[in-house]
User: Fold these one by one.
Assistant:
Number 1:
Amino acid sequence: MRKWKITELNRLTPEAFKASEKIPLIVVLDHVRSLHNVGSVFRTSDAFRVEAIYLCGITATPPHAEIHKTALGAEDTVDWQYFQETSEAVEKLHQAGYTVCAIEQAEGSVMLDNLLLDKEKKYAVILGNEVKGVQQEVVDNCDLCIEIPQYGTKHSLNVSVTAGIVIWDFFKKMNT
């Protein structure tokens, strides 16, 4: 088999991406400190046509060379907003009719593989700080917690890996 050349992939132009239909999903980054993780979330969000990214607290915002290094321009195609406090973002999302989900290991969390989505609803997923996770006060204001099943010795995943798994799962469930 032959690898496709970049010119054969028929990717959208940035203008066509901006005009394209997005999945009803907003990704919220709650005090994510690594600019490489932020860039990776932008790139994955572009790949699966996420509606927007909300950057909160200490999470860096574009333009930034370290974000661009992993985003590869997706920071210019995916819409984003900055919030000083993640709770402000959650409040705005609730007011706009989003079901807000923390990606967190918590009492009563729903395992991602058991999550059923309503295609008529809009969703937001909150990904937390690399060390502390999603702030408890933010979890308290979410509609549910979603947990990724893990079967090894570690109890967490890198935030950009988590974003990739969750975004892909939402994309599949919202488009089938």
Number 2:
Amino acid sequence: MKIDQKNYRAKKMMLWFAMISMSMTFAGLTSSYVVSSRRDDWINNFDLPIEFLVSAILILCSSLTIHAAKRFMLKGDNFKQLVFLWSTIFIAILFLIFQFIGFSKIIDMGYYFTGPESSITTSFIYVLVLIHMLHFIAGIITLIVVTYNSHSKVYNNQNKIGFELATIFWHFLDFLWIYLYVFVVAIN
């Protein structure tokens, strides 16, 4: 087995371990959410602001654009690859904007993360979304690095590991947000 192939497999395995670890974190948090939803002070029928649904749609679109960017990278079409990478970054920024608008609407409804105006329900929502946003920011940094490398024409059929790992991580973040959104909507 060539050293490059071993390196590729090792990096891919490290990414999978990291994503499994992140999944376990969110599994624990969502389990706590379910258990806590039986508390007397739990707010039943809490409706998430529509901005979180818009975020879910945006993140699905970003999965499509990064997939297209990868396809064009494999075809050797650097221009289209960059167009779709920049589109993914733009959509990711829109995602973050809608997350902050959604949070501001929760605050406008009178619910805060901590303090007398907070509730266990909204505190859980804040924690779930903020932890996802931290991972999402790591994803955006990854996208920026991949886009920079794409401008330098680093990626091709022989050198694609960075691009592939970034794509896998981005799809994971997208899936994670969809899971969290559907979970919170279904439990309330």
